[in-house]
Design goal:
It is a single chain. This protein is an alpha+beta fold. The protein folds into 2 domains: 165 residues, Jelly Rolls, CATH 2.60.120.10; 97 residues, Homeodomain-like (Arc Repressor Mutant, subunit A). It has 10 helices and 9 strands. A hairpin with a 4-residue loop joins strand 4 and strand 5. Helix 1 packs parallel to helix 3. Keywords: DNA-binding, Transcription, Transcription regulation. It holds the Pfam family HTH_18. This is Helix-turn-helix protein. InterPro entries: Homeodomain-like_sf, HTH_AraC. GO terms for molecular function: DNA-binding transcription factor activity; transcription cis-regulatory region binding.
Amino acid sequence: MNLAHPLTQAPPQLPAQHLLAQLERLASCDRTAEYACITARHQHGARSVDVTQPTLAILLQGRKQVHGATRSLEFAPGDVFLMARRCRLDVVNLPDPASGIYLSLTIPLCDGAIQTARMAWVDPIRRDGDDIAKFDNLDLSEELQRWASALQAGQLAEARIALAAVVIALCRRGQTSLLAPHSPSLAMQVRDTVAAQPDREWTSRDFETMLGMSGATLRRHLVAEHTTLRDVIASARLGCALTLLYTTRWPIKTVAAKVGYRSVSSFTKRFSDRYGMGPSEIGNAETA
């Protein structure tokens, strides 16, 4: 029997290392609706970033600083970042000095996973708690490994069941507000509609027809929510642009066109006004 010398054998991976290696392999695959690979090649800060649904993120390379409405957090590789509800954050992403890459995996906690977890949960649901929270990946390693393994095997149904188990594990750690039903505001409904087709030439009449209300009523409701239709449409488009800049290597002019801007200069100005940084500062965009 030909056995390798013990000193030449690779040491067994610890559970945390195994999970991170598994997630790194997912990050090297094509982006799917189940998760997104967020990368950056320059240190940068972005203000007023909208989180549009409950989301889990695992930092794989680099460091991250987050400032929310009620607390600030710092993340290192292996840390898990929960955004428990829609919120607005200021973030700073710092690439790893060795690799030159900032890398995280973000997992939307979809309605299906939350509804499944809600049906299984028998304890009281509390609506309080912070918008953002930090965990060690060991807190969720068993559930996340099931989720990642199911995805790697192409088992989407099993992956979504595993994601519901992730939600339940978060609830056991005090995050039951994830299960509380939330009625989206009118502005949120409009934003989500625009985000599904950011390059469309949206008009007030489109939303009047969809929502069954007059233009005056639409404007009045949005004013009551301290916004306007123009601002909501612009915010949705720029949010989509930010995601594309993090998840693709597309040139900035391509990103601008994908979210409905014909002029790169106009897009760059609006993006900079919105986030306090230019679209090139993330560092992913390849030149055309």
